[in-house]
Write a structure and sequence with these properties.
The chain has 184 residues and is of the alpha+beta class. The protein is built from four helices and seven strands, in the order ααβββαββββα. A seven-stranded antiparallel β-sheet has the order 1-2-3-7-6-5-4. Strand 5 and strand 6 form a beta hairpin. The protein is globular, with a radius of gyration of 20 Å. The N terminus is likely disordered.
């Protein structure tokens, strides 16, 4: 084999190899992202049993002082069957015992959390049901410090169910709602 044939063969094999579930993944992950104008980049996408889970991140800050709190992250689970979507998102289906924290998206720097508050009052936003909880981070002296709100928005119709989770500073609540508005 010559020097030119080996790289060509390796490239052919690399491009030609697909995971076993490529057909299932292509159905839910091909095409445009869910957020047309939100400045989010899809970093992960998996489909299983008709439920698609997508992870998005915002643009990375170039400041040397940027922390994990500056990096926007959002997770979306969507599909046709509401029960399957809620199960995949880790949300209890029983409305009498709602989950305080869905495992869909963990707050950043979990080891620095000083207190995780109870669920805040759920709200309706257009066609979305939004539940949230507050996460408090402590300072070196044990004093109250920075806090985030972790929100989970659910929208169901006869055709599809979508669940969106993001943790953000309280002043970014409108940005979260704007992202929900931009979801196709």
């Amino acid at each position: 084999m010559t020097h030119l044939e080996f790289p060509t063969l390796a490239l052919f094999l690399l491009l030609g190899c697909q995971p076993a579930s490529a057909d299932d993944m292509a159905k839910g992950c091909a095409g445009r992202t869910l957020f047309a104008k939100a400045g989010l980049l899809r970093t992960e996408c998996t489909t299983s049993n008709g439920v698609t889970t997508e992870r998005y991140v915002g643009t990375k800050h170039t400041s040397p002082y940027a922390t994990a709190f500056d990096q926007r992250e959002m997770v979306v689970v969507h599909g046709n069957d509401p029960g399957s979507v809620k199960t995949a998102a880790g949300i209890e289906i029983d409305p009498r015992h709602p989950s305080a924290e869905p495992p869909l998206l963990s707050p950043p720097l979990k080891d620095q959390i000083s207190r995780q508050g109870k669920a805040l009052v759920a709200r309706a936003y257009k066609r979305w049901h939004v539940s949230a909880f507050q996460v408090d981070y402590g300072t070196q002296g044990g004093f109250p410090g920075f806090f985030l709100v972790c929100a989970t928005a659910t929208r169901s119709s006869a055709k599809a169910t979508a669940i969106v989770s993001e943790c953000f500073a309280p002043e970014e609540r409108e940005r979260f709602y704007g992202t929900l508005d931009s979801m196709r």
